[in-house]
Write a structure and sequence with these properties.
About 15% of the residues lie in helices and about 60% in strands. It is α+β, with helices and mostly antiparallel strands. It folds into two domains: about 1-35; about 50-194, lipopolysaccharide transport protein A fold, CATH 2.60.450.10.
C-alpha cells in the first residue's frame, strides 16, 4: 500500500512539474509577442544593445540642461545613434523645469546630442504654451527645435496659430512659423481668422 501511495505521489509530482513547465512556456511566449520586434538603425540587423527605461541627462556647469527618458533604447556598438521608443524629454533653465517634449519615437545622436522625434510630438511649457506636430529636430548646440511639417501652436486659451515649418526655443518663448501661417483668436467667444 505504501508503494502504491509513493507511486501516486511520484506520478502527481511529475504531472505537476509538467503543468508548471507548460505554464512557464506559455507566459514566456506571450511576453515575447508583447515586445516590439527589434529593429535597427543599421537596417535588418538586430541592435547590439537594448536598454529599457533608459535615462540620459545633459548638464552644464553642474545644472541640468535636459533629461531624456525612453521606455526602450536600441543601439549598435559602432554607432553614435540610438533608436528611442516612447520619448519623454524635460528641458531645464537654471535647474528649473520649463518645458516637456513627448513623442512616440525618436533617434538621438549620443555624441552631438541631436534628437529627431516623430509620432504625435507635443511640447508643453509650464505656463501652458503648446506645440503639436508630427516631427521635429532638437539641435542641442543651437538650443533650438525646428521642422518642415505642419505645426499647431497654442498660446493661452484664445490664440491658435498653424503653419508649415517652424523654428523655436524649447521653452517656446521664441516661436516662428515659416509658411502657410494662419492664426485664430477667440475674443469673448467670437472666433476671428487673421
Amino acid at each position: 500500500m505504501n508503494a502504491v501511495r509513493g507511486g501516486l505521489r511520484l506520478e502527481a509530482t511529475v504531472i505537476l512539474c509538467g503543468v508548471i513547465v507548460l505554464l512557464m512556456l506559455a507566459v514566456g511566449c506571450s511576453r515575447e509577442e508583447d515586445q516590439p520586434a527589434p529593429t535597427s538603425i543599421a537596417g535588418d540587423r538586430p541592435p547590439d544593445q537594448v536598454l529599457f527605461d533608459a535615462t540620459i541627462t545633459d548638464t552644464a556647469e553642474g545644472a541640468r540642461h535636459w533629461i531624456l527618458d525612453s521606455q526602450r533604447l536600441e543601439k549598435q556598438k559602432k554607432s553614435d545613434e540610438a533608436e528611442l521608443y516612447t520619448v519623454h524629454m524635460d528641458f531645464y533653465k537654471a535647474d528649473t523645469l520649463f518645458s516637456t517634449l513627448t513623442s512616440e519615437r525618436g533617434r538621438a545622436n549620443l555624441k552631438t546630442k541631436l534628437l529627431y522625434a516623430w509620432g504625435d510630438v507635443v511640447v508643453v511649457t509650464r505656463d501652458g504654451r503648446r506645440l503639436e506636430t508630427e516631427e521635429l529636430t532638437y539641435d542641442n548646440k543651437l538650443g533650438r527645435i525646428h521642422n518642415d511639417v505642419f505645426n499647431r501652436f497654442t498660446r493661452g486659451d484664445n490664440a491658435v496659430m498653424t503653419g508649415i515649418g517652424m523654428e523655436a526655443t524649447p521653452e517656446l518663448d521664441y516661436f516662428e512659423l515659416k509658411n502657410e501661417v494662419a492664426a485664430e483668436f477667440d475674443n469673448d467667444g467670437q472666433g476671428e481668422q487673421k
